[in-house]
Amino acid sequence: METCVPWLGCKEIADEVAVQNMLDWGGVKKIYRATWRGHTVAYSNLTRKHFPWRHFFLNDVAMLRTLQSPHVVQMVGSCNTTFLTEYHRLGSADKIEAVLASEEFSKFNNVRTRFNLAVSYLRAMHYLHNSPVGRRVLCDSNRLKKALSQFLITEDLKLVLNDLDSVLEANPKSQLFIKCNFNKIEHKSDFSAPEQRRPFQNGRLNFSMLPSYNEKTDIWKIPTVVDYLLGKVNGSDVVRLNLFNVHRQCKNRDPKKRPSAQILLNEYERIRSMLLPN
């Protein structure tokens, strides 16, 4: 949406927004296509209204309001258990292969587009880790597909953060650590960082042994996400080769030895300028 207007409130949403077909649903909310004054918007509605789902939903609204930036989907309005955001017709980042294989976008299915997607993803993660409300961790990202689904694809083929209902604050300097959705982390998968995986004893989860951690869990996941975004196009392996050393650091089992998002972003920008100059 290019027009700047105040966020919509309850009256405007009730009187002026027309809800159409359902686009998607999850554990917390259903998302519909809707229209407002000729604009298509995404209409999200809370479906599980008891704790903790209501808390997640309200946290999503609060984070969307607070973190508005070029790296986050545009907020349009909210009312109680409903909020509106800008509609992105290309959908979430887990659909990027289908988008780039389509007749409309196949001409953009090249290493430049894909590396730019990766850079926009990394910029969004850097923004989360350096947000106006502290160092935030993208908790709802314990599988590759789930991590990708937290981002939307824009018309100019960039990624913006969309689902912020489980974005928690971590601050090692203040001894503020987190535990992300421990019951959803696959302990046999290496997508999540080692410190996140569930500790088991005799086949049972030992809650007392669950570790706490910080934003370096996001850093661990970045190479796997970027590898997917780069795909198998001409030149993608050259990019991978140049990213190898910094990605190897991301996979260090000691979180303190993993690079920050800022260091990663600097290296990505350097490699992009070297391999894909404007």
Structure summarized in a few sentences:
The chain has 278 residues and is α+β, with helices and mostly antiparallel strands. The chain has helices at 10-16, 53-66, 96-101, 111-129, 144-148, 216-230, 236-250, 261-275, and strands at 17-25, 29-36, 39-46, 75-79, 82-86, 136-138, 151-153, 159-161, 167-169, 200-201, 204-205.
Q: What fraction of residues sit in β-strands? A: 15-25%
Strand order of the largest sheet: 1-2-3-5-4
- How would you describe the oligomerization state of the chains in this entry? single chain
Instruction: List SSEs in N-to-C order.
Output: HEEEHEEHHEHEEEEEHHH
Largest sheet: 5 strands, antiparallel
Shape: globular
* Total DSSP helices: 8
Give the uncertain stretches in residue-range form. none
The overall average pLDDT, rounded, is: 90
The total strand number stands at 11
Structural class: alpha+beta
Percent of residues in helices comes to 25-40%
CA-CA gap between termini? 28 Å
Radius of gyration equals: 19 Å
Task: Tell me about this structure.
By secondary structure, this protein is α+β, with helices and mostly antiparallel strands. Helix content is 35%, strand content 18%. The chain has eight helices and eleven strands. The strands form four sheets. The chain has a five-stranded antiparallel beta sheet with strand order 1-2-3-5-4. It has a two-stranded antiparallel ribbon with strand order 6-9. Helix 4 (111-129) packs antiparallel against helix 8 (261-275), helix 6 (216-230) packs antiparallel against helix 7 (236-250) and helix 7 (236-250) runs antiparallel to helix 8 (261-275). The mean pLDDT is 90.
